[in-house]
Structures are given as structure tokens and as C-alpha cells.
């Protein structure tokens, strides 16, 4: 078994597409800016984040038709230089909710939200520094 992706159900697909592609700088697989599906990948690693139009999935699973409330997910991305990456994405329109700041003695983090309210945690692993 292999984990293929983590998929986020979103109501405003174009806004989320821009956030993950243009603000966070992840690479879209196909360029489907209006959905109903797109997978995004970082420059390295095999993990991916996908967006799925919530209304389309509600056609399959009626319970998804209700508006989502509360924090439903936490997407975690590791970066080599947290301060530089945060400065870069703030310049592209990101709004940090927290950090960059230490989380433990081995990790620094920053947090922000995508247009749907999903939490994104950016991590810098201090043990990997040479």
C-alpha cells in the first residue's frame, strides 16, 4: 500500500488553487485551475496535496453537502529555511497566523490558513542543519 495524496474538499476551488500553486509555490499536476480536481507537489519528495471540489463529492456522498465547520485538517510542509520561505510567501499574499517560532528544541514552525480555513503548518527541522 502507498499513500497517494491527502485530498482537501474545497468550496472555492479557484481561490484554493491559487493559494497552493501561486502562494505556497507547489507544482500543479495538470493546470486545472477551475477544478474539479488538482494535485499539487513540492519540488522534492513524493507526497502530494490534492484539491477536490466539495460540491462534486457531495453528489457522491450527500453528507458532504453541508458547509464544513471548524478545523478539518492540518497540512504540514517541511522547508529548509523557514524565515526565508515565510518572507517569500508573505510577499505573495500569505498571512501568517503564528510564527516563525520554535515549537520544540528540534523544530521551528509557522502557521497560516488556506482560503477554506484549512491549517497549514510550515516546519523547519533543526536537526537537519549542518
UniProtKB/TrEMBL annotation:
Annotated InterPro entries: Anthracycline_SecMetBiosynth, Glyas_Bleomycin-R_OHBP_Dase, Glyas_Fos-R_dOase_dom, VOC_core
Residue ranges constituting the VOC domain according to the UniProt record: 2-125
PANTHER family listed in its UniProt record: GLYOXALASE-RELATED
Stated name of the protein: VOC family protein
